[in-house]
Amino acid sequence: MNWIANYVRPRINSIFSRREVPENLWTKCDDCGTMLFHRELSDSLNVCSNCNHHMAITPRERFAALFDAGNFADVAVPDPIPDPLQFRDQKKYPDRMRAAQKSTGEKEAMLVALGEIGQTPIVAAAQDFSFMGGSMGMYVGNAIVKAAQEAVRLKRPLILFAAAGGARMQEGILSLMQMPRTTVAVQMLREANLPYIVVLTHPTTGGVTASYAMLGDVQIAEPNALICFAGPRVIEQTIREKLPEGFQRAEYLLEHGMLDRVTDRRKMRDELISITRMLMRLPPPVKGHLAAPDDMAASAPDPAKAPTRTEEQPSRK
Predict the structure, then answer these.
(1) Which terminus of the chain faces fewer neighbouring Cβ atoms within 10 Å, N or C?
(2) Within-domain flag for 18
(3) Are residues 144 and 206 in the same domain?
């Protein structure tokens, strides 16, 4: 037995060798290139702490941060015909669907949920851009109609998070028909006098902006989100002119009256709670169930004054 070769050398190598770091511990910011620790990035809702760039976030992650204590219940959406046009390009449409479902872990491009925000019951719907670009197909149309029906049935406001590249080409005209369908769903909310709040995230384009995404009673967007029907490159090629800087971004649309607010994702929950309670004619939101220490001191009873029966709870007799 060679003691140096079999024991000493491996021991030295184990001490001085570089430890391997798992690849999923750090994420590179798409905008500034800063390496962000995954826990810190998750705590900041996928917002870069260096440049404030808003990265993609899944509907379930968004709902976990939006609803009280992260509790929400999925709403079942009717399934459409799987492949109505028998569409095939480089791959069959069902094959693309299975690949998207495997990569995202979701059934389709939109998730509908019930829950409470700031103790205010709501219905929420969110698109997943990582699922075939969040494209609007028959399932997305069914999801919005179902969300509107649940909101009317339960008398709750509907909050929708839009993120899409447009209509789903594999469903052709059936996809385009979701534009009037979803417009009718929004009208159902109007007739029931229920608020419809839209949060536009990056990117929201195509037929989505020509229908339900721009019909909200209140239009909010995340910072620097691309919001348009046709993209800047297509417009520049059509008019053969250079577009203004920041054209079709959230801040540009806010300046030109297309939006009501541009709100940081980390402040979005508080913003939505305030707007929802105001539109539902509810008292202003409060932090927690107990009064703040100063309020408790101001409202504390005088110790010298003994409570009487009328100041206590009424007798059960």
Answers:
(1) C
(2) no
(3) yes
